[in-house]
Structure formats: C-alpha cells, structure tokens
Amino acid sequence: MHAIAIDRFGGPDVLAVRDIALPAPQAGEVRVRVAFAGVNYIDVYMRNGTYARSATYRTPLPMVLGMEGAGTVDAVGRDVRDLAVGQRVAWCIVRGAYAQYAIVPAWKLVPVPDAIPLDIACALMLQGSTAHYLTHSAYPLAAADTCLVHAGAGGVGQLLIQLAKGRGARVLATTGSREKAGIARERGADEVILYRDTDFRDAVMRSTNGRGVDVVYDSVGRDTIARSIRSLRGRGLCVLFGASSGSVEAVSPLELAEAGSVFFTRPHLADYLRDAQEVRQRANDLFAACRNGSLTVAIDRILPLADAADAHRLLESRATRGKLLLALDD
User: CA-CA to 87 of 20 to 30 Å: which in 144, 190, 210, 274?
Assistant: First the structure.
C-alpha cells in the first residue's frame, strides 16, 4: 500500500510516499481502508521532532504520520465484536492515517452516522475533540464566562468559537487579517481583535473593563503566551494547547502569581480521550451538533496523499481558513 512516512525528523521535505506492507489487525484491532486523513499540528510536531521525547505521543523512526482519519472497516482482529466490515468509522490519536490502510484499536473507533459525510467526520475527530474538551472539560464554560480564543479563523478556532457560544459564553477572538476576522465573526465571535494592528492584551482589558477573561485558549504559543497570561482575570486559567509560533519552553511560577494568582495548563488531547466511552461521547456530541445545524465545519481544501508536504507547508504558513484533509481514495 502507499503511505507517507519519514525516516528522520525535519521540514516538510522529509515526507515521502512509500510502498509498505499491508498491515494485519491483531486482537482488539481493526484495519480501516482510509478515505480521508486529517492534517494537524500534531503531525508537524511529530515530523519536526518536537515530540521526540514525548511519552504520550511516541515518534519511533521510521514512522507513518497522521493522527486522524475516517474510512470503512476492512478487516477486524480477534475479540472485536461491535464493528463490522464495511462499516463507516473515524478516529484520532492513533498514528498511521497518512496511508491507504491503517490499524486502529477498536475502542478508539467511532461509528459515523449516515447523515455525516466522511470528510466532515474526519475533520471533527481531532480538532473537534480538542475544541470539545477545551470548552467542556479543561474549563467548562458557562453563560457568565468570557473567553479569549487565539487563531479564531483556524480549524480548531472556528469550532472553539461555536462550542463556546453554544455554552452561552462571550467570545473574544484574535485573527491576523480582516478576512479572517470575518470568518471568526461568522462563527459567532462577539469581538475580533486583529493582533497585527493592536496589542491583544490591551484590547482584552478594554473589552472587559479591566477585569480580564476567565480563560484563554492559546494554540499559538511562544508569541502570545506572556500576554495571554496577563489577559486573565484574577484566578483565571490559561490553556496552552499548541505552538504554531514555536514551543513555550518555560512559564515562571512567580509570573502566574503576579498576573493575579492565575492557573496555567498544557494538556494533551489523549488525556481527555481516556476510554471508549469518552471517545464516543465527544464524537457523538459533535455529530449531533452538526446534524442540528449548531456546528459548522469548514474544510479549507482537500489534497491528494502525494501532496502531504504541501499540506504541511500550508498549515505552518498559517494560510488556512479551516481544515486540511488528504484524500486517500483512488
């Protein structure tokens, strides 16, 4: 089968199409014929070596990339009883989606309802689950809360805004252009801050009458983290869940105290998808929101598998306006 694999860490140029053996499912596993693979920053972190020391997201070389996919069950291993050949499924946080076939533990697979197209299901699994746990678990938003969402026109950002509004929160979002600001507003942001034109921390304080926001959802990292922490109300929470501008190497404990005894966390999505119940609960919530029209999924573009390197370049350039997918069907 064809797959995108790497044998060394580096830039997008290390991504290459290879012919590898068709894998066989073992006990408790399923082989999925992949229709779509999601392109996410976690793939970039695996490709460039950021996660080389991660115990949660292991990156053994050589490896096939791709932590999110959707397709149909092709074969099942022993002890798999609730999934059948031909069934439509989706998953995330299992490496190997950049391939014609992927092996996935059965408990991590979610049956896809007939009303949900496979490209939408794929787009919802990793970014959707991320937006869901951020708004429902890491900081369960309520109607009295105000949040700051960085990169509001990105794949996660658009979903975050919508889920936050669904919980009744007031949403401030940052974007890099007026075009992207329009996207964030379409998704429901109450106020959009153009971070190239103004200091977002100053704008947050003006918008909240000096109080600050209850929670910051920061996927940008190095360029924003200091001001994100200073944008919080007393005892607020900063959730760092990405590093599109570069990794954050350290946050001073004293800085958290000086910012108002605020809290800081850097979670992994895997810790919010602990078992089959949690995996399916989040996915089913997202599927239901799509069906009832309260959640719009924006797919920026779909590229063929062979263009995986170009997909990574697009993602890292911050040129996307939604989800990037790779198509695996012939």
Answer: 274
